[in-house]
Amino acid sequence: MNVIGSNSTGPNAERAPIPPIADVNLLRQWLYDCSTKHLHPQDPLDQNSRIGKVLRRGVLRAINTTTGQIETHDSLVPFVALSYVWGQTVHLTPSLESKTIADYAPSIRDAAELAGSMNIAWLWVDRMCINQSDETEKTFLIPYIKDIFAAAQLTIISAAGDGAHNGLPGTKSTPREKESIVEVTNGPERFSLLSSQPSFNALRGWTFEEQVFSSRVLYIFPTEMIFSCCKGTFRESSRLHFSSGAAGSGWGDNGATPPIVAAEINAKIHSTLPDSGHALSARDFVRAVEEYTSRSLTVEEDRVIAFAGLITLSGGNPGSQFPERALLKHGHPPQFFETALTWQHEESFQKRQPRNRKLFVPSWSWASAGTKVYFLDNGEENG
């Protein structure tokens, strides 16, 4: 149970009631305010150049949020990206198969309807817009997934449910259930409590970078929707009140709090000017690896590639492809190399892989651990 309101003057003192269906006009206003009032410097990964390679390859596809058709684009159009957990029924949904919006998996359907209601005509979904049967295409695109999320007008993060079958609570097709709020009195103080629910999205390895590199995020929690950018957050329970700071840093924990490390790094890289050098410090990198390695991957061999954007951002010239390829062999940025060597297994986490497995990175790499790691050198002295 988490505190969502009280009769005091603290951060939980007032909370607007949450309707079964979110107010689309409110969501539009959030996006408009962010677009017109907040400066978002260009991504230090030289986003335009990298997305250009995807466009020239002819593999940037998106779902038309009106017709449901999956179409290929040769120029960058405004689109929404969906970050979600595939779940166990993914094999029932072939990629590149166009259908009416209503016939997509519920989370994809709801994301398309939500994007359309915010006047954004296109939706990018990895499962549907990447040819999952073409290994050459997948191999090419995987290093650019972070750039696709960075190029999106908005990323919708499904933080409710354990698969695409759950839908997005608060949308027209998936109304939220009535909140079960418990009132508790402690002397003169009265508190409102709401049951919290785990977010499977926050347990998945790939979604870490999806959150870090997205310029704007709309979190869909069971309890409410929260809009976040590098400048701060809007939330349904406080309507048009804007709270500055990294997403989650000033939120009450009401079952609607994102991973703080990913949110803080997101705020840092999207507030950094392109000519300011490396955006991440040793401490940032260490904290990111510690958070990221607590998450699971269906294919453990993806451990480095699913973290490629942060590895590249931490070391090497973003405009050069050679440093990136070299870094992805082990995941240790040159200027943090010695710090990264101090990794240790987090004993409280069970090993994900048997000890006799074939290593896909050198044994000295943190990515070889097969479990959550921590660092003896936490990077504080290096900035």
TrEMBL record:
InterPro entries: HET. Residues 79-188 form the Heterokaryon incompatibility domain. It comes from the Eukaryota. It holds the Pfam family HET. This is Heterokaryon incompatibility domain-containing protein. It comes from Clonostachys solani.
